[in-house]
Fold this sequence. Notes:
Layout (H helix, E strand, L loop, with lengths): L5 H26 L4 H20 L3 H18 L7 H24 L7 H17 L27 H7 L2 H6 L2 E9 L5 H15 L1 E6 L2 H5 L6 E8 L6 H9 L4 E8 L1 H9 L21 H9 L27 H27 L2 H25 L1 E3 L1 H4 L2 H11 L4 E6 L4 E3 H22 L3 H6 L6 E10 L2 E8 L6 H10 L5 H5 L3 H6 L21 H11 L3 E7 L3 E9 L4 E9 L2 E6 L3 E6 L5 E4 L2 E6 L2 E7 H4 L12 E5 L7 E4 L1 E9 L13 E6 L5 E5 L5
Parallel strand pairs: 6-8, 13-22, 17-19
Antiparallel strand pairs: 1-3, 1-4, 2-3, 5-7, 8-9, 9-11, 10-11, 12-13, 12-20, 14-18, 15-16, 16-17, 18-19, 21-22
Helix pairs in contact: 1-2, 1-4, 2-3, 2-8, 3-4, 3-5, 3-12, 4-5, 6-11, 13-14, 16-17, 17-22
Amino acid sequence: MVRMSDATSTFVQESQEDIQKLNNALLDLEDDPESSDAIETVFRVAHNLKGNFGVMGYTTASNLAHAIEDLLDCIRDGELAVTAERMDLIFSGVDHLARMVEEISDTGETNTDPAETIEAIRASIDEEAAAGADGDETGATDGTAANAATVDSDRDVPLAELADDIDLAELEAETSVYRAALEVADTGSPQVDAMFVIDSANDEFELLRTVPSNAAIEDGEFDAAFDAYVATTDSDADRDAVASFFEDDRYVEGVTVAEVTDGIVAEERDDGNSDGDGGVEDDAADNITDAGADADADESTDGDSDSTSESSVTHSSKEVESIRVDVEQVDQLYNQVEEMVTSRIKLRKIIEGSDLVEAEDELEEHGKITASLQDTVLEIRLVPLKKIVGNFPRVVRDLAREQDKEIDFRMEGVDIEMDRSILNELSDPLMHLIRNAVDHGIESPEERERKGKPREGTITLSGERERDRVSVTVEDDGGGLDVEKIRSKAVEQGIMSEDEVALLDDSEVYDLIFHSGFSTTDEVTEVSGRGVGMDVVNQVVRGVDGSINVESEPDEGTAITLMLPVSVAIVRVLFVTAGDETYGVPIKNIDEISEFEDVTLESVEGRQTVTHDNKVYPLLSLGDRLDVPDTEPDGDDMVVRIKEDVRQVCIRCSDVIGQEEVVIKPFEGVLSGAPGISGASVLGEGEVVMILDVDTL
């Protein structure tokens, strides 16, 4: 990956957000074609994308966004209907834009070639135009558009002011200046639409001035018509090309264009000559070619595209690479750092003076500052859940169409915030759960009708915060989990014996779906059936100190809830030893610590157990479980009893050596998901200590 400039980084982040907004607005439009809010959001975001791509020099992407914008314009005007096929075409274009943004993020350039998609979008527009045309004048498909409406303008041409705005040498050498007399389309907000036109003109040309002024237009002090004076050094940008540019703008209803370069030259030389026709040519609107279709097709192969077009895009998860920080939090962080520096200076002077009492007081104050700083940093790292689930509605829509299912996908409580690192880990598990709900959970419309259920199934992703924990639930109203089928599959796949499976209650049977390689699907599909998804969910959630709960009812649906910490794992741990090795056990998981000689031991089927309050706890030897050398048990060993709601078990260790608050770093790569270990912590002396996961030990 290349290092991006600040401008490119900001562009990529904003474009990714805009594409997500566009996807969701398009879904709203598809559900309700009459929604004015959806169509306005679609236009605003598509226009913003087109302009941003153009400003950054990504012409191909800008052309694609322009084509999408034009097709949406026809839908807004009632010329085209919202159909599934037409929405597929628009979504395909948006997918290409998303892919191109990712390429820009990775390499700074685009390789995707959207020429076929642009051509298909333009063809969809042209087909509708041809269908409603009379004769050959507007039904031609050779790229010639209907003549634009002419606009009469009696405003004076401000040659003197224009002469002050531009260098004479540039005019004589390579710059041309054009006057575009524009009439804004009647949408009820002429000043807003006019500002869109001005922004677009400024992106394409050098906008010298407008008459009336920008301020007057923005304040609505004009009659929905104005003049725009633009300069260009493009030798191919003649009067007709400039006219076509404005004609293609959906906010422009009429346009005439005239070149005023010679008049400015004469004015600047002060020889008394001026543009002879007042700057507006009567035939400015005659024979204006539609640069839209041809230019878009030509520029889409301008050298920055060499890959073939793809019809679909993989909806992959992305890490949260940036966060937005409130200014007050930044100020607070700065103040705390200042306090810490001051405290450090005081401590150094106190230590040099050997005043231990004063040193202890200052050290306590230093600890308070550190704790406050820690809280601020953790708060800054919090990111809303919607940051990683914003593309899920689009994922469900595409999967449902592939499988001919009707699904209403809802998201609730996605404004809850979690630490960025936890969200990054959570993205893939949630995607697995959503895909499984579509593939395994929701039945086909016909099957749902036979069961007396609505043809349309419902999948809900909801988030809720409870103190320092967050629950994220994926719930569907589908067929539910088949307990007996899970039992038989577990036996068939060699996971458990028939006798073992028979002893499991329903909740324990549900846990089998998280076993590595387990799947109830007889046929592997593009979505699932490989027996890896739910195993990944289990490993990742356990790795961030979370837990999973599954509830299901036949023909009523399934709900899978992930319980997760809000912040990174900064926890208080008890340090225990096994031989010469030291390990940490989270204090929150511990119920009691006892000397080995004080516990009541029994033997059940050859295994040692501890009896407490008439309950039997299996006794696990830490040295044996982790293959620690030289850990022969003796009478001085200690026993740590784990809380029953975590796991009904006791752990035998060599010794207990204290407790401390530490930062737990989960393992990555081959060590990720290792049973019995949730991560590691680096102590003050640089010693690395493994943190136990008592649930999988």
